[in-house]
Specification:
heteropentamer, A alpha/beta (265), B alpha/beta (243), C alpha/beta (409), D mainly alpha (293), E mainly alpha (351), A: 265 residues, alpha/beta, Rossmann fold, 2 domains, six-stranded mixed beta sheet, globular, disordered C terminus, D: 293 residues, mainly alpha, two-stranded antiparallel sheet, 11 helices, ATP-binding (chain B), AAA+_ATPase (chain B), ABC transporter ATP-binding protein (chain B), BCAA_Transport_ATP-bd_LivF (chain B)
Chain lengths: 265, 243, 409, 293, 351
């Protein structure tokens, strides 16, 4: 933590959907190696923010920089190739593949096989496959579901699918992993397991940016938090600072006398 | 009026509702609060017949209605005003309201028109924009329209999913008062799902907190408002809220 | 339910295998006409067991069904008649027919089956040129006489202009019809004409002949274009024709599209005489085109005007009796397409009568020994160089008048 | 002057063609909007309508009654088709649904051969068909019927969707199926209704075209494809736009054929389609709205 | 261990194809019916197209109603290059495949931005355009009259003339096509493709360049179709545009969907079903209903098609596999066997 270097900076990011401002002039910076949380009530614009960072949605204005490279207008797969991977709020595992194939797909960008060499199955292809499979197995072991490696992903319990998504996101050695509500739908045992995995990966130098509603998790593992309500950033700081921020409390508990909660029409 | 016993609902592999029990009497306003993903919307969806429960029962006026589909639910008087309003954006305000009475329009043509006037009395703002397409209304107006449309179904039980979502506090207050009025003056039974805990509990008779598909706290709204655990539940410092 | 369907498909595979194995056994039941079976019982003592196998491949469904159906019916009728009369030299004829659904791939498969599975003595069929052309290499390969009922000249003439060894063709060449039309135009001194053909092999085939022979007759095309077989409205095309103001308009197509185009010509009040191809020479055309059919002039086989022919015409008897036989049996007017099948069958019978079932001998007989054969379609003079053997006079020019076919002089 | 009359002639032809495409295209749009399925058997409704009507007329039913009866009969067939095929398979993938509707069109075409054979049949024109000459260009009353009927249908459709309760319920189903369900609107009923209506309109198209070009069992396919093209070019979700697209295609075809080459007519039409799809896939006349794309 | 478990996931032994071909190539020992071989040859031609198409439809999730165009481009390239320009058939096949590949690339780039019905219509339109061009450029293609006298193919002095020789030839091609495609599917590329089907958004997020893969597979399937068309041209020696109408494309897709899209075996079963069903109907419908023409067969075919898809929307082969695995699971087995079954069931052979 000593020499903090920014890895992702979001500057004045705005997204307008047909006249409705979903994300309004939001800025923040994620430092290398930290766990960074974005929180806010339902409909606050967190997912929109995520989608802009990963290139799923184009931003209306503002900039996103990843390791000093501008991400705007990059396609999602290009952003992935630069070293940002993600998980999804409503699980997006490749349900037509086995677990290990899912993870191997995650290693896609680290492989070189092309359609011709693949079709002819050259020795180099075979080599690469074996290596990738070994790495995938390691990644599965790291999240603790290696015993399910040959199951069809679709048949996994919900919690394991989440872990699978994380293994898939991690295998390509990304610099930043975005987690979209990783705890949603997990029971406490599963949540704990997931938290452990995240903490372990962070120790290995991975940076996490995540959106979460489960405040317990957020408060216990994040280094920094940004709070968004109705598309506007209403707070930023360490968990303690956030907990004491009256604006944030208001946003969650809905105190109608409170100022600063912009209305939307 | 409405009795829910050990209700379970699955979304694929996800066990969303994990044994819900509650009873509701006529004219009561029940607020259900809880964090995102707790299963509130699924609960309302299950009650409205949108989702099939995997086990458990729903009794309405002593009759088992667990397996009814949406159309039957609406006809028997249970109506859901969905999250994010879901109005018919290209249809006019009037058409939106009229479609609310779809299931009885042909039978009670005249009565529907009378009630249409009544509903408009409840939402005077809508009166001025009857021919405007629903999509051009402001968020608050759309919410009123959605509630009005729900009322046109002439429901005995009205369910609202996060009516305050994305609305300014003043408008939220308005809407909450209207809901209260509905209960008091028309004897409607209302289930209100809200994230805006304070606003909801202020108007509700009773409230319950939903977490991980189960009701973890319930009581009168006053009790809940004063319960420090409710506030804590939102910030996750309370292990009790977790299973 | 799902299991039921699955088992259905397993069953199907087995059915197919059964179909394959039992081919020879069940084919008789399946395709030969019913009387043939009965007769084989009655005539059994007289002949040796092996019937003579003739295979017919027609487009009795699909796009060309209107052509293929009378062919199939004619050949069924004639086989029945022949078998009832004791067959050929005491041997029964076994007729096996296939429907190629007007599809080229189906035609190939049927031809394969005919030559290899059924081991046909003679194959008759190929209703449309595309199918006949796809079938004939097989006839050459398996050295089986093949009598084609499709019109294209390419059917019996190969790329280098020589006759294909095993293929004979019954219908007149398009060339003959085109020449007949050109002769007519020349006689009437209509030299500047518009040529319109349907955009398929029939249409372009006619067009090629026209381009080739028009200069010989001193006819000049002021506009040449084509229309779709599915045409709904040809007026856009006809506006261009109108601008050129031709002496006559030739519409080369089959029934439906020609009817639409000719109706449109009348609607646009184009005064030029309309000449059409022999492809519309059916009652149906008059029905579909209605009043617009009046005064359309076309070349046709003699069948339509059989009764108006002079008694001295050598074909008259054959024509009248064929026409009567067909109408009596099927209760509908005979069609020109049926005459092709009739001639094909009769020629094959003649050959088998004199040479037995030896394929090469049959071929040689048709090529060298048949001589002048008076058929329903025309008078055939088949030679080693000409495996069709008809002349332009097998066509008559006919004018449609009030729904009747009238000989045009 | 001659050029002008030629242009007029081409315009008349284009409008007639467009009118017929429009009637079938409207059916596509209605079914697509309500069910999300593109019905590749749509053209067959026109074929069935035309041939049924001809059979009735041949059995001495008066023309007007024959038209109405054939619309009713084809609408009923449409209803059966929806219940048996579309409804049972509605959850399948787009590809499977395409093949199912194609399969149905194969069945209908085959059945038509069985009933009517492969021969061309004609229907007398609706009224006396003496050509009218405008600026040296010829216009037939039947063509006026075609254009007129399609305009009337367009107006009826607009009235239906915008001013009747059932129409509005259908629109509601399109705009927001989820909310419509919550209002107790039964989407299955609506889907049945939509297919019945578009089958009826398709049948009408068939009876309109039968006096112009005759009717055969295989007329449906190309009509269907062209109408489909028209609907997509106009904007698949919007009936008036689809009708505009249909007239555009009709006119484009007529002018290509009249001024250039009839053989390359289809090339021009489909190239135009591809261009539209690549450049403006939501259709030329579609309003940017939150509807399905 | 690793190489063994790699096998388990990918089950990439060539046992399946080898058994199929062993069985197929044994047929000549049992039967010498040329009719049978012509049927099997036809199935081979269709199967080769379908293998490409099934990869496109099942794995890349793209529909194509225009594959007859590539089939035609292959056929006409071979026809023109060998007859008109006297090239060696094998060179003609390669040139045809290259032309198809380039056309596929040019058409594919804008087309695959479209989805669902729009994609279907765009490819249908492409097919119709190509068909019309075959008809209109009659100076090269012979127009509607068709193209005659395509010479038979030959290899090391051996001329392929008989049905049996083409039967061997086409099925050797099918064999290698199966191997090639399977290798692709069980590789990085295949996972990329299948990820598109599994979840397009997640595929994007792991860096799979969707467009690029869709295009590559489209080009591959175009090449397969083209080669099949070329071989067909040499086999039948006469082609005309009507072989390559929109209907042909539709029937290719029907074969793929009937067999089970995204399943190589499905494409072969689909092609076989299509051809066999036709022959069966031709044989049995007249037995059931004497004195009716081929149209009854069409109706039967249509009804069977619709019913199959309604009750087995995934197609025959996946349904069969499901049934088989259910059957296997029902039989009591010891744990070890159980686990191999589940590995097999999840293994790549069928995917």
């Amino acid at each position: 933590m000593s020499n903090k270097r920014p890895i992702l900076s979001v500057e004045n990011l705005t997204k307008v959907f047909g006249g409705v401002v979903a994300v309004d002039n939001v800025s923040f910076t994620v430092e290398e190696g930290e766990i960074f949380a974005v929180i806010g009530p339902n409909g606050a614009g967190k997912s929109t923010l995520f989608n802009m960072i990963t290139g799923v949605l184009p931003s209306s204005s503002g900039n996103i920089y990843f390791q000093e490279k501008r991400l705007n207008r990059k396609k999602p797969y290009q952003i992935a190739q630069m070293g940002i991977t993600r998980t999804f709020q409503n699980l997006e595992v490749f349900d037509n593949m086995t677990v290990i194939e899912n993870v191997m797909t995650g290693a896609h960008i680290t492989m070189k096989t092309n359609i011709l060499t693949a079709g002819l199955r050259l020795p180099s292809v075979r080599n690469e496959e074996v290596k990738t499979m070994e790495r995938a197995m390691e990644a599965l072991e790291a999240v603790g579901i290696s015993d399910l490696a040959y199951e069809i992903a679709d048949r996994l319990p919900y919690g394991s699918q989440r872990l699978l998504e994380i293994a898939r996101a991690a295998i390509s050695n990304p610099k930043l992993i975005l987690l979209d509500e990783p705890m949603a739908g997990l029971n406490s045992e599963e949540s704990r397991q997931l938290v452990e995995v995240i903490l372990k990966m962070r120790e290995q130098g991975m940076t996490f940016l995540f959106v979460e509603h489960d405040m317990e998790t957020v408060m216990s593992i994040s280094d920094s938090i940004v709070v968004i309500d109705n598309g506007v950033k209403i707070g930023e700081g360490t968990p303690e600072e956030i907990y004491q921020n009256p604006q944030v409390v208001a946003a969650y508990l809905g105190d109608e006398e409170e100022e600063g909660v912009e209305a939307y029409a | 009026m409405l009795k829910v016993t050990d209700l379970h609902t699955h979304h694929g592999y996800l066990h969303v509702l994990n044994g819900i029990n509650f009873e509701l009497s006529e004219g009561e306003l029940l607020a259900i609060v809880g964090s995102n993903g707790a299963g509130k919307s699924t609960l309302l969806g299950t009650l409205a017949g949108v989702y099939r429960p995997s086990s458990g029962s729903i009794e309405y006026k002593g009759k088992d209605i667990t397996k009814q589909n949406v159309q039957k639910m609406v006809s028997s008087g249970i109506c859901l005003v969905p999250e994010r309003r879901q109005i018919f954006s290209s249809l006019s305000v009037k058409d939106n309201l009229m479609l609310g009475a779809y299931h009885r329009y042909r039978r009670d043509h005249k009565k529907v028109h009378d009630e249409y006037e009544e509903v408009l009395e409840l939402f005077p703002r809508l009166k001025t924009m009857l021919n405007r397409p629903g999509g051009l209304l402001s968020g608050g107006e759309q919410q009123m329209l959605a509630i009005g449309r729900g009322l046109m179904a002439n429901p005995k039980v009205l369910m609202l999913d996060e009516p305050s979502l994305g609305l300014a506090p003043l408008i939220v207050k308005d809407i909450m008062q209207i809901l209260r009025k509905l209960c008091d003056e028309r004897g409607a039974t209302i289930i209100l799902v809200e994230q805006n805990v304070k606003a909801a509990l202020k108007v509700a008779d009773r409230g319950c907190v939903l977490a991980h598909g189960q009701i973890v706290i319930s009581g009168t709204s006053q009790e809940l408002l004063n319960d420090p655990k409710v506030q804590e539940a939102y910030f996750g410092k309370m292990e009790a809220a977790k299973v | 339910m799902k299991k039921v369907f699955l088992s259905l498909f397993v069953l199907m595979t087995m059915l197919f295998l059964a179909a394959c194995n039992s081919d020879n056994a069940s084919e008789t039941k399946e395709t030969s006409t019913e009387p043939a079976k009965e007769d084989s019982a009655t005539t059994e003592p007289s002949g040796d067991g092996e019937p003579i196998k003739i295979v017919g491949i027609f487009s009795s469904s699909g796009g060309a069904a209107a052509l293929g159906e009378p062919e199939l019916e004619t050949i069924k009728m004639l086989v029945e008649e022949k078998n009832a009369a004791g067959g050929i030299n005491g041997q029964q004829i076994e007729l096996i027919t296939y429907d190629d659904k007007s599809d080229q791939n189906q035609a190939i498969l049927a031809m394969k089956k005919a030559l290899t599975q059924d081991e046909a003595t003679v194959v008759i069929g190929g209703t449309i040129s595309g199918n006949a052309l796809a079938m004939l290499p097989l006839a050459e390969q398996y050295e089986t006489p093949y009598i084609s009922l499709a019109a294209s000249k390419q059917v019996y003439v190969d790329e280098s202009g020589n006759a294909r060894k095993w293929v004979f063709k019954m219908p007149q060449d398009d060339q003959l019809a085109v020449e007949r039309i050109l002769q007519y135009l020349k006689d009437k001194n209509l030299t500047k004409v518009a040529w319109l053909n349907v955009a398929n092999s029939y249409g372009t085939g006619g067009h090629d002949e026209f381009k080739k022979y028009a200069p010989e007759y001193g006819i000049e095309a002021v506009i040449e274009d084509e229309f779709e077989a599915t045409v709904n409205d040809a007026k856009p095309l006809l506006t261009r024709v109108k601008k050129e103001n031709p002496d006559a308009i030739i519409v080369w197509g089959t029934v439906q599209e020609s009817a639409v185009v000719i109706k449109n010509i009348r609607e646009l009040a184009l005064e030029a005489p309309i000449l059409a191809s022999h492809g519309i020479a059916t009652e149906q055309f008059i029905e579909v085109a209605g009043d617009a059919a009046n005064d359309v002039i076309l070349p046709t086989g003699k069948l339509l005007v059989a009764n108006s022919l002079e008694d001295s015409n050598p074909q008259k008897d054959v024509l009248v009796s064929y026409s009567k036989q067909y109408t009596d049996k099927y209760n509908k007017p005979a069609s020109t397409f049926g005459t092709y099948a009739a001639d094909g069958f009769n020629i094959a019978v003649k050959a088998i009568e004199s040479k037995g079932t030896d394929r090469a001998a049959i071929r040689d007989f048709i090529e060298n020994e048949l001589g002048e054969y008076i058929g329903v379609t025309g008078i055939f003079n088949i030679t080693p160089d000409n495996h069709m053997g008809l002349a332009p006079d097998s066509f008559e020019m006919v004018r449609i008048q009030n729904g009747e076919w009238v000989l045009e002089k | 002057m001659e050029l002008l009359s030629q242009m007029m002639q081409l315009l008349f032809s284009g409008l007639t063609l467009g009118a017929i495409y429009a009637l079938i295209a409207v059916g596509f749009v209605v079914i697509y909007n309500v069910t999300g399925i593109l019905n590749f058997a749509q053209g067959e409704f026109a074929m069935l309508g035309a041939l049924t009507c001809i059979s009735l007329v041949n059995n001495n039913v008066p023309l007007w009654l024959a038209i109405i009866l054939s619309i009713v009969i084809v609408a009923a067939i449409g209803g059966i088709f929806e219940r048996t095929a579309l409804h049972t398979a509605r959850k399948s993938s787009v590809t499977t649904l395409i093949i199912i509707t194609i399969g149905v069109s194969i069945v209908l075409r085959g059945a038509a051969i069985l009933i009517w054979g492969t021969q061309v049949q004609t229907l007398p024109p609706f009224t006396d068909n003496t050509p009218i000459t405008i600026l040296d260009a010829v216009l037939l009353p039947q063509n006026i019927w075609a254009v007129g009927i399609s305009i009337v249908i367009l107006i009826l459709m607009m009235y239906f969707f915008n001013y009747t309760f059932v129409g509005k319920s259908l629109t509601a189903c399109v705009v927001n199926p989820f909310a419509a369900r919550l209002m107790g609107i039964n989407p299955e009923k609506m889907s049945l209704f939509a297919v019945i209506v578009s089958a009826g309109v398709g049948a009408l198209a068939g009876t309109v075209i039968a006096p112009i070009s005759g009717a055969t069992y295989d007329m449906g396919m190309m009509l269907g494809i062209k109408a489909f093209v028209a609907a997509v070019i106009g904007g698949l979700t919007n009936a008036p736009a689809a009708i505009a697209g249909a007239f555009l295609i009709g006119i484009l075809e007529a002018f290509t054929e009249g001024l250039w080459s009839s053989g390359l007519k289809d090339v021009v039409t489909f190239t135009f389609l591809l261009l539209i799809l690549f450049v403006k896939p939501e259709g030329l006349f579609a309003k940017a709205s939150g509807k399905r794309v | 261990m690793n190489s063994k478990s790699l096998k388990l996931i990918y089950n990439n032994s060539i046992l399946g194809p080898i058994i199929l071909f062993a069985v197929l190539f044994c047929i000549p020992l049992v039967s010498s019916s040329n009719y049978l071989f012509s049927i099997l040859t036809m199935i081979g031609f269709y199967a080769l197209v379908c293998i490409g198409l099934t990869t496109l439809t099942g794995y890349a999730g793209q529909i194509s109603l225009g594959h007859a165009a590539f089939y035609g481009i292959g056929a006409y390239s071979s026809a023109v290059l060998t007859s008109t320009y006297g090239l060696n058939p094998w060179i003609a096949i390669i040139i045809g495949a290259l032309i198809s590949a380039v056309v596929a690339l040019i058409v594919g780039i804008p087309t695959f931005k479209l989805k669902g019905y729009y994609l279907a219509l765009a490819t249908l339109g492409f097919g119709i355009i190509v068909y019309t061009l075959f008809k209109e450029f009659s100076s090269i293609t012979g127009g509607s009259n068709g193209f005659f006298g395509i010479p038979p193919i030959s290899l090391f002095g051996y001329e392929f003339i008989t049905d049996k020789s083409y039967f061997y030839l086409i099925w050797v091609f099918v064999f290698f096509a199966i191997l090639f495609t399977r290798n692709i599917i069980h590789s990085r590329i295949g996972r990329g493709l299948r990820s598109i089907e599994g979840s397009e958004i997640a595929a994007d997020a792991v860096g799979v360049n969707l467009m690029n893969y869709k295009l590559q597979i489209f080009v591959l399937s175009a090449i397969f179709a083209s080669v099949s068309g070329s071989l067909l041209a040499h086999y039948v020696s006469f082609i005309n545009p009507d072989l390559f109408v929109a209907n042909t494309s539709i029937f290719f897709l029907i074969m793929v969907i009937m067999g089970g899209k995204g399943n190589i075996w499905g494409s072969i079963v689909g092609a076989a079903m299509y051809v066999l069903l036709d022959e069966i109907l031709k044989h049995y419908v007249p037995l059931l209903l004497p004195n009716v023409g081929g149209q009854f067969e069409i109706v039967f075919f249509g009804i069977l098609l619709v019913l199959t898809l309604i009750y087995m929307p995934d197609g025959l082969v996946p349904r069969f596999e499901k049934l088989m695995s259910k059957f296997k699971k029902k039989t009591p087995t010891n744990g070890a066997l159980q686990s191999t079954i589940s590995v097999n069931a999840t293994g790549g052979d069928n995917k």
